[in-house]
Amino acid sequence: MNSPTHPALPVLGRSGLAVLLAGQLLPMIDFSIINVALDEIARALGASETALELLVALYGLCFAVCLAMGGRLGDSFGRRRVFRCGILVFGIASLLCGLSTSITQLLFARALQGIGAALLVPQVLATIHVSLRGAAHSRAIGLYGAIGGLAFIVGQVLGGFLVSSDVAGLGWRSVFLVNLPVCAAVLILLERRV
Fold it and tell me: Considering Cα of 126, then 129, then 130, then 136, what sign does the dihedral take?
């Protein structure tokens, strides 16, 4: 029996961990997936080299600036709720990126993507820390670290494939729109598994 001073720890199963790690994978991939689409973006939107550099840097800047806020919001309002909000913001921002018709719109949407990423990423590690112990905790931390490293490679390869394949005639837009089904799946599974 649990006493009021020692409440039961939440349990995170394998499927729940997979959902969280899929949520973490999205923003990590987006750090690198855009790199292979920059030439196409420059041609389609008439973007200058400075604008392209800003397109890459703005995402990372917004992510870094808002990361501590994302962690604090998770502590205050609940990790699952803030994770869900982060996925929603990230998904909406990805859609806006894919629909952008000017470099200014794309820059705005890219900044919003960084904010969404900063909301969801801290919740993954915090949930692992409070929900798992012992070998399960160590294994989850190992997967967390591995996903962070693999995401950069996956982003480059996936981005190159999507741009060169010109899936559904979307060209560079597909590197952003590919996030939408993943965001939808994470949101659906979040309620059932985490």
Answer: positive
pLDDT at 69 over 50: yes
Q: What whole-number distance in Å separates Cα of residue 127 and Cα of residue 10?
A: 9
Which band of pLDDT confidence, cut at 50, 70 and 90, is reported for residue 9? low
Q: Which of 26, 1, 7 is closest to 186 using CA atoms?
A: 26
- Rounded distance, CA 143 to CA 151, Å? 12
Cα gap 30→99, rounded to integer Å: 16
Residue 35, φ and ψ in degrees, nearest 5: -55, -40
Judge contact between 110 and 97, C-beta under 8 A: yes
Indicate the angle between helix axes 14-32 and 79-99, nearest 10 degrees.
40
